[in-house]
Structure formats: structure tokens, C-alpha cells
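Hey L., structure's done. Input below.
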Amino acid sequence: MTFVVAENCINCKYVDCVEVCPVDCFYEGPNFLVIHPDECIDCALCEPECPANAIFSEDELPDDQQQFLQLNAELAETWPNITENTGSLPDAEEWDGVEGKIEYLKR
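Output:
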């Protein structure tokens, strides 16, 4: 099982989760983070660190967020690995909780 970064991370990209990951399985895009499912060890350390509540256990991923399981796997293969907290996006607080952000995802 893996953890999954879901829609609320888009345009927020808080990176608090990255520093607690013992296996460095986070990958960074322009406005979103993903977890590599083959590298995640299901330790659950990242989930409580996300201020946007955008990280879910695969078996607790809401039905309307299921597409993010595949999206995390796909993007983790092309985006660079991130291991340090580089800070959130400047307008993260404004985007936190906005619904329908998938259209804003930058690949």
C-alpha cells in the first residue's frame, strides 16, 4: 500500500511532508507534489504533516480523488525527487480548500 497526494495539494504545494519521509519518495512538479508508490513504505509520517490535508492512505483515498493514485505513479516517473522543505507556493493559503483544482495542475 502507498500514500497518495491528492487534489488539494495543487497550487499549495506545502512541503512539510517531505522532510519527515524516511525513504525520500516525494517528487516535485511546478505546483504539485507526488509520492512514488513503489518507494513509499507506508510509514504514515507524511499524512499528519500536510497542512492542506492532501495526503491519504491508498485505502482511504476518497472516491472523487481516485485518479490521483495513477497520477502520482505517472508523475513520479518524470518529476525530480525532493528531499528538503523548499517552502510552499506564495499563494498557498488562498488555494487551500479550493475545489476542482485538477485543471490547474502543471505537468
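Strands lie at 3-5, 26-28, 33-35, 55-57. The chain has a mean pLDDT of 97.

-- N.
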